[in-house]
Every structure is written in structure tokens, then in C-alpha cells.
Design goal:
Layout: H1 2-29, H2 33-37, H3 44-53, H4 60-72, H5 86-121, H6 126-140, H7 143-157, E1 170-172, E2 175-177, H8 182-215, H9 218-225, H10 230-268, H11 273-282, H12 286-314
Antiparallel strand pairs: 1-2
Helix pairs in contact: 1-4, 1-12, 5-6, 5-8, 5-10, 5-12, 6-8, 7-8, 7-10, 8-10, 10-11, 10-12, 11-12
Length: 321
Amino acid sequence: MLVFIIKRIANAAMVMLAVALLAFLIFRLAGDPVELMANEQMSQADRDNLREKLGLNDNFATQYARFVVNAAQGNFGISYRNNQEVLGLIAERFPATMELVLVATFISLVVGIPMGVITAIQRGKWYTESLQFLSIIGVSLPSFVVGILLILVFSVSLGWAPAFGRGDVVDFGWWSTGLLTSSGRAALILPAIALSLYQITLIMRLVRAEMLEVLRSDFVKFARARGIPRWRIHFRHALRNCLMPVVTMTAMNIGALIAFALITETVFQWPGMGMLFIQAVTFIDIPVMAAYLCIVSFIFVFLNTLVDIAYAVIDPRLRAR
């Protein structure tokens, strides 16, 4: 088991080195950092001193190694646009993104799992066919279209929820949350629904497929023959055997939701990491762009590694791979 864990950690480290190389290339290819940071009054001597201070006169390998070491320590430099430490900027925006992602994940589980069970045990009914059709629409619609439709209906027409912003928040050190205020909860509803719609359809279809497979198994047939109530068979026995792939997919998709939340954050003007990244692209703020890429990739790799290790703990046969 220890060898398996070491292999998975080594693989994760190699992936992060590749991501760091890509992020470093952004620095190299997006323009001269000195020219992006310098103002019109800066002399050539000052530019040369700044170039020497940033280590831009060193060779490629030395600069890349320095970038990896600094990134591992959380040092991504200074934002060109805000003139602040990049890690501090991301730390300010990270709670908003994580709150949005976690609420969207909760909604997708609470809605998607029951929908998947219903469409599996009530096949052929008009409402299950309707849910299947709606799931196709949910997978097909881009998240920005869903967000705009939600704003038009529930904000502009009905006035039930705010169309943008995060509302009032409560600070706990560097962490902030809007779940403890009424305006924060109201502002969270629409973006969380828009972000969770695609996840809901995936979970519903996965649970349905797994339920149909389990309901055809022998132990379910024996349970029915013993006269166990159907609701107990469906929700206590069959559903329990369907949840492992759901948990796996949910854990792996948290990283995807963090990455793709930037579209939802832009539509709803949600002050998260995604909004910060869009602003960085607009103003060519390369340190913020590179830091966002590294942090999101680290979350992806970390969650995937945890899932691999959890699978190996559950099924020892996987440790030999």
C-alpha cells in the first residue's frame, strides 16, 4: 500500500511540474514582464535593474527552477494590475468560489440522486421520460445561457433574487461567507443553480444507469422473493451500491466546477477566483493567470490522488496497477 501511495504522489508531482512548465511558458510567451510592469517615466537603467531583480537574465532552466520553488512556497509574485501579492489576491477570492462550488455540489447531490432513482424505478412513466428529456437539455445548454435565463426570469421578471454580487458576508479571519446573512444567501441561489445544472444531469444519469444494473442483480431478486418492501430494496440496498461511483465523480468534478465557475462568476459578477482570472486576462496580468492555473490544477490533482488512494483502500486489487 505504501508503494502504491508513493507512486500516486510521484505521478501527481510530475503532473504539477508539467502544469508549472505551462504556467512558466505563459510568462515567457505573453510578453516582456519588464515592459508590462514599467511606466513611461522609467529609464533604461531602471528597466535593466528591474530585469536583473526579476532574474530575467538567467537561462531558461534556472528561471523555471526558480518559478517551481517559489510556486511550491505560494510565491507567485506581484500582480501587474493591483500591485499586490498574487497569493493574497487569490486568498481574498477563494472563499467566494469555494462557497459557490460547495453549494452547487450540494444541490446537485440532493436533486440529482432522487431524480436518478425515480427514473430508474419508474421507467416508462410520462414524468420519468420528461426528466430524461430535461436532462439532455441540461447537458446541452452552456452555463452562461442558463445563467442569463435565470437572471431574466427570477431577477428581472419576478424580482425574487439579486442578479449580481455576493451580498453581505461575515469574516472569520481570511475566510468569508455569505451563508450567515439573508442577502448573502439570496445572492447565492441563482449562480449556484446555474453552476449545478450540468452536474445534476450527470448525477441523475449515472444513478439511473447504476440503479438499473443493480436492480437486475441476484441479491435484489432474492430480496424481492423474501417479501422485503420495495422502498427498502430501492433506497436501502440498491441505492447504497450505486453511491460509490457518484461519490467518486462528485469528488473529481469539484475541481472541474472550480475551473468552470469562471463563466458563472462572470455572468453573475460573483467576486471569486474566476472573476479575478477574467480580469487578469483582460489586463494581461500574467502572475495572476499563472497562479490561477497552478492552484486549480493542484486541486484537480489532489482530489484525483485522494480518489485513487481511497479506491486502493477499498479494493486491494488496484494496488498492483
